[in-house]
Amino acid sequence: MFKITLLPGDGIGPEVTAGAVRVLQAVQKCTGVEITMQEALFGGCAYDKTGTPLPEETLRLCLEGDAVLLGAVGGPRWDNLPVHLRPERGALLPLRKELGVFANLRPSLIFPSLADASTLKREVVDGLDLMVVRELTGGIYFGKKQREDLPEGGYRVVETLEYTTGEIERVARVAFELARKRRCKLTSVDKANVLESSRLWREVVSGLAAEYPDVELNHMLVDNCAMQLVRNPKQFDVLLTENMFGDILSDQASQLTGSIGMLPSASLGGKVGLFEPIHGSAPDIAGKDIANPIASILSVAMMLRYSFNLEEEAALVERAVSAVLEEGYRTTDIMQPGMRRVSTGEMAELIAGKIQ
Ligand code: NAD
Ligand code: IPM
Ligand code: MN
Q1: Predicted-complex ipTM score
Q2: CA 173 → CA 102, 115, 204, 274, distances in Å?
Q3: Least C-beta-crowded within 10 Å: which of 178, 225, 241, 278?
Q4: Which residue among 255, 279, 310 closes a domain?
Q5: NCBIfam families of this UniProt entry (predicted)?
Q6: Has this prediction a pTM greater than 0.95?
Q7: Distance of alpha carbon 223 from alpha carbon 233, whole angstroms
């Protein structure tokens, strides 16, 4: 019996999470895997109801369960709250930290039927299969922050980027191990020509290479990497990087697959795994039933694979997504001429229908 905590959150979060739940129910019915789901308040909606974006009860449920499925949080309604009450700073980051999920896996994989949905030429993206491993609980997101008044008016802010050898080593090992199971190529991305933290990053990653002689390691500066991702993304297998670079590069990598609405993630390394689409609450399309639920549905596949060790069930979900795309069904973000446009709910229903 697996216990999942659902945190639908804000904006399109509840819409895409409902789709993922629909698919999980189909998996349960088809395979007999026993799963219980319990929903909790998280993000802006939690602030509205309880005065805090991360209620204690929510955190307790997450820590007690076997995995967390998160939709998205945030939106203009909460943007001007004091930082500790904002959904991103007051809920999402503390949750990641509390769960101890330091390794964030963001696979950028193109489904063959979407090779023309990307804004890049088919030949550049067709067959793409790369994995971003993003450090998730350190770096500038979690360093000391300070804002002070200046005598002449205005402010001075300080924001600190910290990493320890241990923090770098543990996420690098995850990346080496993953590369080993894939095409044995690891590109570590940094800004070692400028940042001290990146120099340590490079040193530690290089130091591990001898333990993984079967993995080909190279280092790339982050600005070049951003360029290479659109020039020739198929040169990459596993990309390893620190928290903020990984945030930015993974949004960029997502578009290679056709839409950010396609990219799932798994955050691992703690007792309880956290699974969420890489996109946000998309306030511009929230409440319209047009968001793409596939990122969330594929996050469920990652949960089955990485938290529950149910590889066959994970593959079942991925094949169901592929089959529905092959049949020409598309949400608005991946719509193309001649295809059949469906809503969030319809897409989830179609995918659930293929789980048998
Ligand atoms: P976003 O990812 O929410 O949206 C960026 C663009 O992509 C928008 O045009 C949106 O409509 C589109 N998009 C995103 N997901 C989609 C989907 N599933 N289907 C179709 N189109 C999709 O990023 P943003 O607009 O910069 O941020 C909006 C809010 O979300 C902010 O408050 C931000 O802090 C928050 N955010 C939260 C998370 C999270 O909870 N993990 C992640 C990113 C951003
Ligand atoms: C993501 C998001 C978050 C991040 C924000 C909302 C804090 O952009 O999950 O990619 O930067 O980690
Ligand atoms: Mn992001």
Answers
A1: 0.99
A2: 12, 32, 10, 19
A3: 178
A4: 255
A5: leuB
A6: yes
A7: 14
